[in-house]
Amino acid sequence: MSVLDLARPEIRTMQPYSSARTEASGGQVMLNANESAWEPTGEAGAGCNRYPDPQPQALLQALAMLYGIRTEQLLVGRGSDEAIDLLVRAFCRAGQDAIVIQPPTFGMYAVCARIQNAVVIDVQLADDFSLDIPALLAAITPAVKLVFLCTPNNPSGKSMSLADIEQVAQALVGKALLVVDEAYIEFSDQTSAIELIDRYEHLAVLRTLSKAWALAGARIGSLLANPEVIALLRRIMPPYPLPLPCVAAALAALSPSGQAAASAHIQIVREQRAFMRRSLAELPGVREVLSSDANFLAVRFDDAGAVYQRLLQAGIVVRDVRRYPKLQDALRITIGTPDENAKVLAILKSMVDDRRFADGSA
Do you know which InterPro entries this protein is assigned to (predicted)? Predict the structure, then answer.
């Protein structure tokens, strides 16, 4: 069985849109795409009068080298969100097929499925936010086409072991495509599931430059998968997904100096994550600080709503995750600069002092 047998048959047989840029390239006088012959004003617009390469070779090569794969195993798009959407549209027939997710987890898996009118099957993580493999596998039906695993998980920060991921991959052979979202793995010591791609044709891995590489505003995400899956998704991808300025920003980030800067910042985040976990855990009113392999901490409070409002009044925005299962008392706090982290701690300490004063214990 080919992994493409899991995909929608009408997608496998459709004639994809053929853009002017893919039909002809390398000419001197470009008169085939109805573009402007004049560049826009300003240095930032240089070359932007022409449509960009749908999958720029320089970027593909840089990312393939970074991730240790072949360029034909790589699709680059507008953040991981686009890859998630493409996967759901390619593999899930509206009103018939389903995906499996493990709440609490990243919300876009379910959003993309519901837009496609695919069923979303929830298999909650265990109480310690680890993967419940027996429950997950018990939920697999012939309708399930995609299974999403997020590691390190968002919003808990907990990683899944490579052994657990491989156990799921083995169980899903011929049944569903396994998608492992590794948006935060640069902050973790866990081994990437990329190592399994050549062994399992039904395994795909999501990576992004938004987090560790500081390019959230450029929207550069990657799907790493079997070349047949990559080719299938390119059939339904918009013809020009990557703006030239975004590609330039990505190539700069992936240059030797850019990689050195990212490495230094990742180290700061890891050090500050450990510091913030210790410091937060010592504060009255903090019930628990979850262990995290990502660039954030999920923190349980006695009164998460009051903490959220107090931080907001001070101009500090954190993520309210109380709507997620098992996190009804929690906020997610991204690890910022040392100064930003110190401000968070100062506000939380001031709340403790205010309560002591109100209680007459100050």
Answer: Aminotrans_II_pyridoxalP_BS, Aminotransferase_I/II_large, HisP_aminotrans, PyrdxlP-dep_Trfase, PyrdxlP-dep_Trfase_major, PyrdxlP-dep_Trfase_small
C-beta separation of 230 from 236 below 8 A: no
Angle in degrees, CA 98, 181, 10, rounded to 5: 40
pTM (2 decimals)?
0.94
For the segment 298-322, what is each residue's pLDDT rounded down to a tens digit?
999 999 999 999 999 999 999 999 9
C-alpha to C-alpha distance for 288 and 230, rounded to whole angstroms: 42
- Residue 347 tokens, joined: 């506000």
CB atoms within 10 A of CB 361: 7
CB atoms near residue 17 (< 10 Å): 11
Q: How far apart are CA 327 and CA 105, in angstroms?
A: 11
CATH of 258-358, one of 3.40.50.10540, 3.50.50.60, 3.40.50.720, 3.90.1150.10: 3.90.1150.10
* 8 A C-beta contact, residue 104 and residue 326: yes
Q: What is the pLDDT of residues 214-237, one digit of tens each?
A: 999 999 999 999 999 999 999 999
Of residues 31, 20, 73, 87, the one with CA closest to residue 237: 87
Dist CA 229 CA 171 (whole Å): 19
Phi, psi of 74 (to 5 degrees): -130, 130
Integer Cα distance of 109 and 120 in angstroms: 9
Q: Pick 3-19+54-254's CATH classification: 3.40.640.10, 3.40.50.12780, 1.10.3630.10, 2.30.30.40.
A: 3.40.640.10
Element (DSSP H or E) covering residue 307: helix 304-313
* Burial tier of 323 (Cβ tally within 10 Å: 0-12, 13-18, 19+): exposed
Contact criterion met (CB below 8 Å) for 232 and 4: yes
Q: Residues of CATH 3.90.1150.10 domain(s) within the chain? A: 258-358
